[in-house]
Design brief:
This protein has 205 residues and is an alpha/beta fold. The chain is built from 6 helices and 9 strands; from the N terminus they run H-E-E-H-E-H-E-E-H-E-H-E-E-E-H. Helices cover 29% and strands 19% of the residues.
Length: 205
């Protein structure tokens, strides 16, 4: 699906940032599906995100950042990571790395690793740059229900549960990101997605 977005007023991004900084949950479009987010370094905000989605607390949440250079604060990058990130970010590839102690255990379900991504969507990037902090993000739906691809679909499931839903038009991807675990050697795809294993292999070869 081609990328078509509504014009998002700067004031709406500012309102969303204010809500995030107050520990609230915000819904916004990404390049895959609509996401719902909370500050990744605020365990109370992340707990609210789990409750909002009805997500089991032992399930890890991926984290989105605005720039590759922001990764080292919350994870331990490797040369392999940098090669893949420089090729596929921004884009629908989640890379799993060992986490640092800055990231609360609630984000990763107590696991020592975290999945990271930079989304290729102007609204998502504007929000990440404006808040200037990593966001714990999951698809904008109740657990067990289909991921929302539009603000209308997100609102149907989450109205009254979240502070803000940013309508950026249909999410162009329509499916969750490819997840690649870089803590294993060789790396392992944990979830197939828009980026095929063959494309990853070409980059790594």
């Amino acid at each position: 699906m081609p990328l078509t977005t509504h014009v998002i007023p700067a004031a709406q991004i500012e309102t969303a940032v204010s809500a995030l900084l107050q520990g609230q949950v915000v819904v916004f479009p990404t390049d895959t599906v609509y996401g719902m987010a909370a500050l990744a370094t605020d365990p109370n905000a992340v707990a609210t995100l789990f409750v909002t989605k009805n997500r089991p607390p032992d399930m890890a949440l991926p984290v989105m950042v605005a720039d590759i250079e922001h990764v080292s604060a919350i994870a331990r990058p490797t040369s392999l990571f940098r090669t893949l990130a420089q090729r596929f970010w921004p884009g629908p590839l989640t890379l799993i790395l060992p986490k640092t102690s800055v990231l609360p255990d609630i984000v990763t379900g107590g696991r020592p690793t975290v999945g990271l991504r930079i989304p290729d969507h102007p609204v998502a990037l504007a929000l990440l740059r404006a808040v200037a902090q990593p966001l714990a993000v999951t698809s904008a739906n109740l657990s067990g229900q289909p991921p929302a691809r539009t603000a209308t679909e997100a609102r149907a499931q989450l109205a009254g549960r979240v502070s803000i839903i940013i309508d950026g038009g249909p999410a162009p991807g329509g499916q969750p990101s490819t997840v690649l675990d870089l803590t294993q050697s060789p790396p392992v795809i944990l979830r197939p997605g828009p980026i095929a294993w063959e494309d990853l292999q070409q980059t790594l070869s």
